[in-house]
Amino acid sequence: MTPVRIALLGVAHVHAEGYAAWLTGQPDVDVIGYAEAAPQLAADFADSTGLRLLPLPDLLTARPHGVVVCSETVHHRAYVEAAARAGAHVLSEKPLATTLEDAQALLDACALAGVTLHTAVPVRYSPAVRHLRAQVQAGVLGNVLAYSGVNHSVSPDHERAWFSGPALAGGGAGMDHIIHLADLLHHFGERVQSVYARLIPVPAWTIPGREQTDAAGLVTLNLESGAVATIDCSWSRPRAYPRWGHLKLGVVGTAGMRSLDAFAEHLSVTNVQGRRWAGYGADLNGAMLRDFLTVCGGGKAALLASGQDGVRALQVVLAAYESEGVGRAVVLSAEAGAAR
């Protein structure tokens, strides 16, 4: 069997090393290398993964079947457009872009080249998410009245400083965390009609010389079905927290209520370094990457988020920032993510 050739384009994202470790461990995958413009980051990634650093043109000349884009968000467009021209399928970190214009350009470039664009939303693969989605869609809870989502974490800027800079990331905790739960709502069959949000910095983030960005937020969504949803999207966990954070979703319907914690399966490990929670649940990143490899081999993957899914979720995020700016609810356009 011919291995699937995969390349990483940009390695600034905190998930890049994990993706590289999983991909290089698969017997049916040939990770041909990675591209990265920042010299120190590129060198560190070579040391930690053993992969080859190549100039982007050389990497794409090797004709990868697929690429995984893990750069700073603002650079996604350049990498995705280059990969599309080279005929490679694309799995891009979320959010797809910092603007709807750039996100639509990614869709258009991949459609023109005849390759697929996918958004990295691994929580779709959580067994708890899959079970709750099946119950909602089967009507087990009756007519859904409300969703309550929580996505808290430690601020990721201590691993990658660019995450807390709007110029490279497009925003703060709202950009980082609204998108997962917005995608799950769409995945459950809902469509967002309007968005009202408060996205605010906290005192620790008003440091001289640092761009002011949101670290705490609460978003209220009106859905086309008549249900409402809330998303708590905060970097509220201290650096010493035993895991990165939480992703939880509660659903209330006319016939019952259910809730999930996508990362509930863990053990508490205590040693001289402190305490941490070691997860033992499903490998969500691995499941997502396996689906992407299926696509690269010419197959289909039912759970893999599409580029259109990524654009729709980004539309919700950007509407939240607009709402914070204007101080009122923002009605979403129906055109985002449409094929051209």
UniProtKB/TrEMBL annotation:
Cited InterPro entries: Gfo/Idh/MocA-like_OxRdtase_N, Gfo/Idh/MocA_Oxidoreductases, GFO_IDH_MocA-like_dom, NAD(P)-bd_dom_sf
Protein's name in the database: Dehydrogenase
PANTHER family with a match to the protein in the record: BILIVERDIN REDUCTASE A
Organism: Deinococcus aerolatus
Annotated Gfo/Idh/MocA-like oxidoreductase N-terminal domain residues: 4-119
Coiled coil: none
UniProt domain GFO/IDH/MocA-like oxidoreductase: residue ranges: 129-257
Signal peptide range in chain numbering: none
Gene3D superfamilies: Dihydrodipicolinate Reductase, domain 2 (3.30.360.10), NAD(P)-binding Rossmann-like Domain (3.40.50.720)
Lineage of the species this protein comes from: Bacteria, Thermotogati, Deinococcota, Deinococci, Deinococcales
